[in-house]
Amino acid sequence: MLAFAGYRSSMTEPHPEQQYLDLMRQIWERGSERVDRTGIGTRSIAGAMLRYDLSDGAMPLLTTKRVYWKTATREMLWFLTGETNIRPLVLQEVKIWNEWPHARYVKETGEDIALEDFVQRIADSEDFAETWGDLGPVYGKQWVDWPTYLAREDGLFEAGPGINQIAHVVESLRNNPGSRRHIIEGWNVAELDQMALPPCHKTYQFHVADGRLNCLLYQRSCDVALGLPFNLWSAALLNRMLAQQASLEPGELVWMGGDVHLYLNHAHLIEEQLSRSPSGNPTLEITRKPETIFDYKIEDFRVDDYAPQPPIKAPVAV
Predict the structure, then answer these.
(1) How many domains are contained in the chain?
(2) Is the pTM of this model over 0.90?
(3) What are the tens digits of pLDDT across the range 112-127?
(4) Residues labelled catalytic
(5) Domain that holds residue 270
(6) 3-class secondary-structure state, position 177
(7) Strand partners, 195
(8) CA–CA distances in Å: residue 290 to residues 50, 54, 145, 153
């Protein structure tokens, strides 16, 4: 069974992280081998669910390997700015998105530049970053500036005011908590071809019950070894920020995956991580309540009781 609803660890209950390890083992041992977009190959299953109780500061932060939660948090704060250029991340030494613009640069220019040298150019030159560092209308753009179009008198259309989905959700949580429309959507079909990578964690829905805010995330495509540890943290973090802004208590994170897979070249990571046992219960404290959800800073977040086992490196499939 992959989903353990809302439990916290004890002497008799499984550690919350065990469901992640069970999912990893199921995919690796019984998943179907498939040829994928990257050409690397995966073992994959269709459909999975994980559930995490976020009460008392609990967070789905893996302990069987180190997860760089500050990196994931900086990425989430970057999403909330609506920014789509990697330069702000590069200047914070966040490397999550570097491979995609680098691959585009090499393909379009023919220059066989090392990734590290490309990233340094992004950091050193605003002009270079403007040309080569943009990812297209990825997550943040859709979240805070979903495009609209207005009809003109000549029958053509022009850009209208963007829709800030994040702000709308905060308002609806405050004023209409029983709504079934607390949704943040990233899958803008009309703009998918302009994105460096179409959204994987595509649809968030929020649910208020008994003064608690629950988050349901549907992820169409999930790299369980490298991506999912960040995705779980980020979704729980977003839920915690929204809960604070709406004066609610954190509830449950329900994660649902579509194509849930492991890359064949991650065997060493998978086998090493499956040999480890989870321990401890890391917690997150948000140290202040900013005026809006768009005003959080990295200094506002503190993690306690996090003593993970060593990191396990593996290549990102582009």
Answers:
(1) 1
(2) yes
(3) 999 999 999 999 999 9
(4) 200
(5) 18-84+135-304
(6) coil
(7) none
(8) 30, 21, 21, 43
